[in-house]
């Protein structure tokens, strides 16, 4: 295989604490399958035979168990990192640097995506890129999706990404918060790339193809913590700085300067490229301008593929609603209502819904655009819409759940009406309760927030 | 035919008449002294007046009514239009000349047009120096379509792709645009000329829309389709002087007023403006090599030129080519011209009734009407205006401009970049020449024409009096400012005014006369230097004071004004301005030159001038005399530097 694959599954889910209090993010179910299965499945479909999975020490066992139950053929190499140190994605990659022997494809466990990876690889190869990133517009429904819980003003996390109009080279990158009133660009960059398209509608899929040299560079730079927030912007910026030539003045022989290893010392020069440069009278070799640092960051923009990061509550909820559609496109045969489930013949389960193994759905219950987890017990005349019921939860008769997340082993008593609520793991909701926009979790967990 | 056309016009409804406004004045002096006798729009471009290209372009696009707005040399334009084909009955297009002597800008023109109530529907706004072959009709159609959907679309700007560094990108504007990819609306417009190395763009422009394209590869053709409200908006906002002001104003207020400007990209067609001499060169070459088709000599003047291989255009009448002369490529020879034996001409335009002698070499030159070139001359890239005479064996080096009627004596060599004129040329712009030189970081010196104002006008030419013996005259405002500063400083000494009060006075004069910071730096330095001379009794003879006397006078002044100087010369740039002013003044005054080293030493000790700046100036200084005068000080400085430098290295 040309690339090594690394799946980053050690995220703590800081944008969805209420859900990740008991389970780690990588194991949160989407359509009754752990989240981390999706990127692994994507790798498998692209023909990868092995992948390195970076997980938290505490969750290693759970992840291993959960994945062994899924039918994955890809060979997995689990690497665990310490829970206590707050390690970013770049830190994780640094830890496994000695395992990286080739160019590497790094993918986040929360990426749900059906992009053909070879298209991305083609961009990477044809431009001899240092880093290639996947950019995608948000699919329908995700921009306006709201998660359960108290209504709060959504903090928008738009990225501003400037791409060269002709070949989608990344010229500028940063998140909205990085910029103040004005964006400042160097004139020399505009001269080289006189046609830049600046996107605010695209999200970075956190799927990168990197040269091996990037990992080597990372190993020497302990200050870089994350890939998206720090490493990529750094490389984008360094594309346009030139190599510092350390010239030792001949008169001054006493001081021998040791060249400080910098970003450029990790760029091994391509032999063919150098030959081309030597023999060419023009300063351009193919599409590669010979002047510059030799660092090239490119982007691949998906046109019609589905691509979403389920790293926020809202995105996670919406993904569960749309997961049936996605699974249909990815897996050829998938039963949405498990054969071991006991669904009453008078119950209605929509085509856009799933019912897990061993679950019971009572008489005249209706399940629409919702996921019912394994071994759940749904009582009679229960109405569930736009919701996610996790494993082993019990919903008693006559309940009405709309736009809710019910945690594992939670208990909803008779005729409760919940709207836009989140019920944590093993929580109880009393009978006849009427809740809207609320979060029901352990009191001591709330302290942490 | 004629009556038919007229009838046709009457049948049209009022709003169907397509109107165009041609601004025939440039409101600048880029072409002086060539524009002293003729307005810019009547200067010949490949033997056809510039205005004719614009009018041809408009008429071929089906414009019915053209208003030519002019002020400078309006009578000439009037009579030109009267004699032209557009005044004939067969013309489909009615050209009206509007004269208004007191307009000072494009804004004034449009306000005048609004006041006269000439505009009835959407109109084309264009400057009188555009050469283009684009399909204007289609662009107008598009504009109208868009306006039907979107009432607030008040303008469509037409731009052409020209990458930075492309020769058709004239150096005067350097626009960057932000455009909504979906629809082509202009969201932000910025002329980055002189904006420095970093360019700033408002962030909200990009956040509000999904995809915004940032273009640095577009060149403004100063051609726009406007709705009638544009003229009204100019009236409402009397501070809009140029079209750029207007565009900026509209874009800033677009969220409040709702007015929008769209972009039309004319990528496959030709459009260029003759805004300065280098653009004159570029556009002429483009016409010769037929980029502007059908606006080429053999078609514009209906069969009067023949077109031959290698882009050789010869007028059909009375062109005499002697034996052995060689026209290699891209040459136009006008009516009644003769070319002598063994003469070589390439990439050049020869006007009407020119006489070119034997064994002449002409390469990349523009000879207007009635030029006489003597035997054995060598003429490089230059402009020779009407009735210029070059005697025998004259060499004109690249980048020269020789104005009307100059005669250059035999065996003369006119150095590169010289400007010759019979009438005095006022330097209106104090230091644009310097600025341009700085910005010209690219290596395209091939297109820069004479901008330095040398007054070496050869033997035969009439005398241009040296305007000011000692130094170039500042612009009017700067001159008054200078007088004020001198006054303030004088009073400062006489009445012992405190230094910070003097600074306040100088600052208020700065605002009153609107001088730039650079001018201020230069002029303040000069004022201090000049004071001893004035105090010694009149400035008629600068050398009246001997160097020791001068130093005796200057020293207390420097002590007195040191706080003022250190107030202004904080940055390296301003210190460099000060040094340049010192240099310039010393060149004109030998006694000042003699004490320059001492002055520098004093300023250095007072920490007004930094060591690095002094060294930088010294290395750039080109006057050997001056260099030798300050040499002792520089050596002293270097020694001091080495001592302190060795300390730093050990760190």
From TrEMBL, chain A:
- Gene3D superfamilies with a match to the protein in the record: Hexapeptide repeat proteins (2.160.10.10), Spore Coat Polysaccharide Biosynthesis Protein SpsA, Chain A (3.90.550.10)
Q: In which broad location class does this protein mainly occur, judging by the first location in its UniProt entry?
A: cytoplasm
Q: Where do the coiled-coil regions begin and end?
A: none
Q: Please give the InterPro entries that the UniProt record associates with this protein.
A: eIF2B_gamma, LbH_EIF2B3/5, NTP_transferase_dom, Nucleotide-diphossugar_trans
- Which CDD domains does the UniProt entry name for this protein? eIF-2B_gamma_N, LbH_eIF2B_gamma_C
Keyword annotations of the record: Cytoplasm, Initiation factor, Protein biosynthesis
Q: Which Pfam families match?
A: LbH_EIF2B, NTP_transferase
* EIF2B subunit epsilon/gamma LbH domain mapped to chain residues: 336-431
Q: Where is the Nucleotidyl transferase domain?
A: 5-140
Cell location: Cytoplasm, Cytosol
Q: Which domain of life is it from?
A: Eukaryota
Q: What does this protein do?
A: Acts as a component of the translation initiation factor 2B (eIF2B) complex, which catalyzes the exchange of GDP for GTP on the eukaryotic initiation factor 2 (eIF2) complex gamma subunit. Its guanine nucleotide exchange factor activity is repressed when bound to eIF2 complex phosphorylated on the alpha subunit, thereby limiting the amount of methionyl-initiator methionine tRNA available to the ribosome and consequently global translation is repressed.
What quaternary arrangement does the UniProt entry report? Component of the translation initiation factor 2B (eIF2B) complex which is a heterodecamer of two sets of five different subunits: alpha, beta, gamma, delta and epsilon. Subunits alpha, beta and delta comprise a regulatory subcomplex and subunits epsilon and gamma comprise a catalytic subcomplex. Within the complex, the hexameric regulatory complex resides at the center, with the two heterodimeric catalytic subcomplexes bound on opposite sides.
Family membership noted in the UniProt record: Belongs to the eIF-2B gamma/epsilon subunits family.
* Name by which UniProt lists this protein: Translation initiation factor eIF2B subunit gamma
- The organism encoding this protein is Priapulus caudatus (Priapulid worm)
TrEMBL record, chain B:
Q: Name one Pfam family in it.
A: W2
Where is region (Disordered) located?
435-476
Q: Where is the composition biased (Acidic residues)?
A: 435-446
Identify the main location: cytoplasm
Cell compartment(s), UniProt: Cytoplasm, Cytosol
Keywords, comma-separated and alphabetical: Cytoplasm, Initiation factor, Protein biosynthesis
Query: In its keyword annotation, does this UniProt entry include Zinc-finger?
Result: no
**Where in this chain does the entry annotate a coiled-coil region?**
none
Q: Which InterPro entries match?
A: ARM-type_fold, eIF-2B_epsilon_N, eIF2B_epsilon, LbH_EIF2B3/5, NTP_transferase_dom, Nucleotide-diphossugar_trans, Trimer_LpxA-like_sf, W2_domain
Q: Which Gene3D superfamilies match?
A: 1.25.40.180, Hexapeptide repeat proteins (2.160.10.10), Spore Coat Polysaccharide Biosynthesis Protein SpsA, Chain A (3.90.550.10)
**According to the UniProt entry, which residue ranges have a biased composition of type Basic and acidic residues?**
462-476
Query: PROSITE patterns in the record, alphabetically?
Result: W2
Domain called W2: residue spans? 471-647
Q: Which family does it belong to?
A: Belongs to the eIF-2B gamma/epsilon subunits family.
UniProt subunit comment:
Component of the translation initiation factor 2B (eIF2B) complex which is a heterodecamer of two sets of five different subunits: alpha, beta, gamma, delta and epsilon. Subunits alpha, beta and delta comprise a regulatory subcomplex and subunits epsilon and gamma comprise a catalytic subcomplex. Within the complex, the hexameric regulatory complex resides at the center, with the two heterodimeric catalytic subcomplexes bound on opposite sides.
What's the name of the protein? Translation initiation factor eIF2B subunit epsilon
Origin organism is Priapulus caudatus
Q: List the gene name.
A: LOC106809480
């Amino acid at each position: 295989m040309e690339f090594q694959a690394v799946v980053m599954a050690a995220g703590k889910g800081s944008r969805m604490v209420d859900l990740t209090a008991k389970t780690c993010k990588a194991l949160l179910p989407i359509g009754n399958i752990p989240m981390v299965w999706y990127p692994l499945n994507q790798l498998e479909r692209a023909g990868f035979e092995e992948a390195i999975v970076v997980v938290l020490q505490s969750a290693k066992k759970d992840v291993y168990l959960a994945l062994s139950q899924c039918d994955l053929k890809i060979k997995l190499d689990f690497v665990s990192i310490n829970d206590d140190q707050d390690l970013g994605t770049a830190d994780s990659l640094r830890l496994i640097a000695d395992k990286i022997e080739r160019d590497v494809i790094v993918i986040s466990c929360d990426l749900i995506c059906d992009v053909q990876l070879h298209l991305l690889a083609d961009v990477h190869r044809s431009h001899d890129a240092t880093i290639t990133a996947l950019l995608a517009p948000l699919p329908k429904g995700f921009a306006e999706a709201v998660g359960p819980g108290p209504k709060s003003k959504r903090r928008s996390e738009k990225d501003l990404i400037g791409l060269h109009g002709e070949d989608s080279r990344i010229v500028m990158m940063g998140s909205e918060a990085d910029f103040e009133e004005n964006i400042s660009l160097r004139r020399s960059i505009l001269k080289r790339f006189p046609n830049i398209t600046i996107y605010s509608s695209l999200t970075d899929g956190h799927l990168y193809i990197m040269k091996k040299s990037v990992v080597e560079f990372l190993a020497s730079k302990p200050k870089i913590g994350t890939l998206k927030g720090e490493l990529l912007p750094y490389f984008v910026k360094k594309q346009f700085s030139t190599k510092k030539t350390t010239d030792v003045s001949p008169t001054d022989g006493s001081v021998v300067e040791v060249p400080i290893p910098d970003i450029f010392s990790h760029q091994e020069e391509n032999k063919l490229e150098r030959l081309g440069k030597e023999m060419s009278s023009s300063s351009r070799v193919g599409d590669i301008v010979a002047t510059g640092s030799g660092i090239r960051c490119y982007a691949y923009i998906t046109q019609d593929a589905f691509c979403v990061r389920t790293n926020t509550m809202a995105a996670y909820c919406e993904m569960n609603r749309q997961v049936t559609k996605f699974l249909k496109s990815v897996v050829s045969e998938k039963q949405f209502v498990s054969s071991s489930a006991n669904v009453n013949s008078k119950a209605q389960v929509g085509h856009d819904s799933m019912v897990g193994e061993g679950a019971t759905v009572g008489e005249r219950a209706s399940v629409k655009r919702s996921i019912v987890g394994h071994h759940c017990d749904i009582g009679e005349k229960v109405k569930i819409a736009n919701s996610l019921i996790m494993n082993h939860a019990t919903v008693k008769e006559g309940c009405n759940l709309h736009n809710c997340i019910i945690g594992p082993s939670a208990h909803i008593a008779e005729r409760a009406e919940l709207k836009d609520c989140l019920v944590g793991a093993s929580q109880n909701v009393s009978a006849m309760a009427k809740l809207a926009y609320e979060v029901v979790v352990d009191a001591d967990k709330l302290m942490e927030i | 035919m004629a009556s038919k056309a007229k009838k046709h016009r009457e049948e049209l409804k009022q709003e169907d008449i397509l109107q165009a406004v041609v601004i025939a004045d440039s409101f600048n002096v880029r072409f002086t002294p060539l524009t002293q006798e003729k307005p810019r729009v009547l200067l010949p471009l490949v033997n056809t007046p510039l205005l004719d290209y614009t009018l041809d372009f408009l008429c071929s696009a089906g414009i019915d009514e053209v208003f030519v707005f002019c002020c400078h040399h309006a009578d000439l334009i009037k009579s030109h239009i009267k004699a032209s084909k557009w005044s004939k009955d067969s013309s489909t297009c009615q050209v009206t000349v509007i004269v208004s002597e007191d307009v000072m800008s494009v804004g004034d023109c449009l306000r005048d047009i609004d006041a006269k109530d000439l505009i009835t529907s959407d109109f084309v706004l264009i400057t009188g120096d555009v050469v283009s072959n684009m399909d204007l009709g289609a662009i107008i159609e598009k504009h109208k379509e868009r306006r039907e959907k979107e009432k607030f679309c008040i303008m469509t700007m037409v731009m052409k792709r020209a990458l930075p560094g492309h020769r058709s990108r004239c150096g005067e504007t350097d626009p960057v645009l932000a455009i909504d990819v979906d629809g082509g609306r202009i969201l932000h417009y910025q002329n980055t000329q002189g904006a420095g190395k970093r360019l700033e763009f408002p962030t909200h422009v990009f956040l509000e829309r999904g995809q915004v394209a940032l273009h640095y590869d577009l060149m403004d053709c100063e051609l726009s389709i406007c709705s009638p409200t544009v003229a009204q908006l100019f009236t409402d906002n009397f501070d809009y002087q140029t079209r750029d002001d207007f565009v900026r104003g509209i874009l800033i207020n677009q969220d409040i007023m709702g007015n929008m400007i769209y972009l039309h990209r004319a990528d496959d067609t030709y459009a260029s403006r003759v805004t300065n001499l280098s653009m004159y060169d570029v556009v002429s070459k483009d016409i010769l090599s037929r980029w502007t088709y059908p606006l080429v000599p053999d078609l514009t003047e209906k069969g009067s030129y023949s077109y031959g291989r290698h882009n050789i255009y010869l007028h059909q009448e009375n062109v005499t080519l002697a034996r052995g002369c060689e026209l290699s490529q891209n040459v136009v020879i006008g009516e009644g011209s003769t070319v002598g034996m063994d003469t070589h001409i390439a990439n050049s335009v020869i006007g009407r009734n020119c006489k070119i002698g034997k064994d002449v070499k002409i390469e990349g030159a523009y000879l207007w009407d009635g030029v006489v070139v003597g035997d054995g001359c060598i003429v490089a890239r230059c402009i020779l205006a009407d009735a210029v005479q070059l005697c025998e064996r004259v060499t004109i080096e690249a980048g020269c401009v020789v104005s009307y009627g100059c005669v250059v004596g035999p065996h003369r060599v006119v150095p590169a970049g010289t400007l010759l004129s019979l009438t005095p040329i006022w330097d209106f712009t104090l230091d644009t020449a310097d600025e341009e030189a700085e910005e010209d970081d690219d290596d395209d010196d091939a297109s820069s024409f004479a901008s330095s104002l040398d007054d070496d006008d050869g033997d035969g030419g009439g005398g241009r009096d040296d305007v000011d013996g000692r130094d170039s005259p500042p612009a009017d405002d700067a001159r008054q400012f200078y007088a004020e500063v001198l006054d303030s400083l004088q009073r400062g000494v006489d009445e012992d005014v405190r230094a910070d009060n003097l600074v306040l006075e100088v600052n208020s004069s700065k605002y009153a006369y609107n001088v730039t910071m650079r001018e201020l730096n230069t002029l303040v330095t000069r004022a201090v230097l000049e004071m001893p001379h004035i105090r010694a009794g009149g400035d008629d003879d600068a050398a009246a004071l001997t160097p020791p006397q001068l130093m005796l006078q200057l020293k207390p002044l420097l002590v007195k004004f040191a706080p003022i100087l250190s107030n202004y010369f904080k940055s390296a740039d301003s210190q460099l301005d000060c040094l340049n002013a010192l240099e310039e003044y010393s060149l004109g005054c030998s006694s000042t030159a003699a004490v320059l080293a001492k002055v520098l030493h004093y300023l250095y000790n007072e920490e007004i001038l930094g060591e690095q700046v002094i060294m930088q100036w010294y290395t750039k200084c080109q006057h050997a005399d001056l260099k030798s005068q300050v040499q002792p000080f520089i050596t002293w400085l270097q020694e001091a530097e080495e001592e302190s430098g060795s300390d730093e290295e050990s760190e």
